[in-house]
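Notebook entry, cofactor series.
This is the third protein in the set we're modelling with a bound small molecule. For this one the ligand is zinc ion. I'm keeping the input format identical across the series so the outputs can be compared line by line later. Sequence and SMILES below, as received.
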Amino acid sequence: MRNVLKKLIYILAVLFFGSFTDLNAQGQPNCGFNRDFFDSSYIHWYQKAVEASTKTFLDNRGKVSRDTEFVVPVVFHFIHHPNFPPDKLFIVKALAEINADFSRLNADTINLRSKFKSRAANAKIRFVLVDKDQNGQPSNGYTARSSLTTFGVEPYQSYRTWHNMKFDTCGGISPWNTNKYLNIWVCSLKSPKSGRTYWAGFATPPKNAPRWGMFYRDSSIDGIVLDQSTYSNSSRSSTLTHEIGHYLGLRHVSGDPPAFFDSATMCSYDDSLFDTPRVLNQNYYTCDTTLNSCIEPTNDFPDMLENFMDYTGDRCRNTFTKQQVSLMRYCLNTLRPQLPKLIVTKMVTTTLFLLDVYPNPNKGSLNVDFKDPFSQGYSAFIYDCLGRKVVESPITQPKSILNLDGLSTGWYQLTIVNNQFEIVYRKSIYKD
Ligand SMILES: [Zn+2]
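Returned structure with ligand:
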């Protein structure tokens, strides 16, 4: 029974953009949500996706090739408890994770089963923290508002209240121009009513995105919301990666079937991408590789638990497929055209950041040697197995030594970022 309830909650989570049909029964909104967010077709959102041809996903502006890198400016908005001011580490970890995941540099790609390896793809999308505000003035990349307000809602609560954190007038922070910036709100999503946190995050898809039966007419709520715990509780979080997938037009791999249909019906729902195997419904926090919830008539594959657009969790998710990547690049290029800068030259690759890190294991001092021309602005972060930062050190010399004397014996993760918070190096290290 508990499982059923859990599933129900998540199904409601999946449905929340389109499930609140009692639009007129909510009375007067108390806070700016007297708007019609949905296209009238949203009630048909669950119908099978319309496109079947991959050619419509292809980047369709001639100048954009597979080598083109998209660079997306990101601004964070923290609505935080007075005792817990915004933590720059949150931003560092978030950008490090997404920049690794969207350039397929994430260390856990080695966990992708070999049968899926030919389907995996590098999205070539880079996320850069803004260094100027909308008026061209220097910015540290985030805005903040100290407040005791939490923004969590119950699964069945009016959709209007889901977005309060996006409005100055509702206790939140109004976005920067959503056509030009990816806005990410970080706040408490704990429901004041039940004290529970139902969502790790949620996102808005692009207007007119294929495979979404509804779209947002209102750019004032466009962006991503994360619960403030997202980057404090684990050493690996793929939550923002998953939400950016939605923000760039991806559905869940299940195609989000309506709840409680029989398995044959549910398996007929799909994200309409050919290289993500069909799954009965979202897989909740399992890495069981024997799972094959939908038998495909031909060319059957097991559930792709490694896909970022399932719910399998951080231990399993590590991959976008080629068609997911094509669809995201298509959406970025055509449906969010003002958002990215296009870098047509070859993408920056890790070979530019060749480093020697030794010895490993170490006894308290770790050498970091840059092999390539060195510039200022690198920083080293070391996280323990709980994701807590235990060392933070600027790297000012091409040959540096990190002092790890204060660390107890065990495994740690070393991350080196440049001054754009792009991850340039990551390695597991052992302190002896
Ligand atoms: Zn999702």
